[in-house]
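Next comes this protein.

***
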Amino acid sequence: MKLHFRALHIPSDWLWVRAQVPVIKAEDTAGVVAQDVETGNLVGAAIFDNWSRTSVQGHFMITSPMVLRHGFLETAADFIFNQQDKRVMIAFIAGNNEKALKLNAHIGFEVIHRIPDGYEEGVDYVLMQLTKENCKYLPTKARV
């Protein structure tokens, strides 16, 4: 699989994003997508919103594990931590979304708090963070 990474195009990419994750587009939504060069299909996206001076909320979605092997996480990390100069990426995950919790842990996010019944009754909201210093997808020299 050969991938092309590019900026998220709203609205043309948004239908695919919404089919993967029920994220709501905000006026500050931006992101990067991974597109299969051969088919033209999107196979991954990293969507960012709720920007502050030092942080941003991230939403990751992938439909092929090959995305993880071809530079997608490095591209997303470079966009947030280097190009946008953020120190922290934040994620809110439903406690019963095992795939998302596993993916975020793989990326390097750490659980910093659980909000009991925060997602829905009986399902916690899990607050996770990834700091620039702990992001394994940035070259060591770029972490400081």
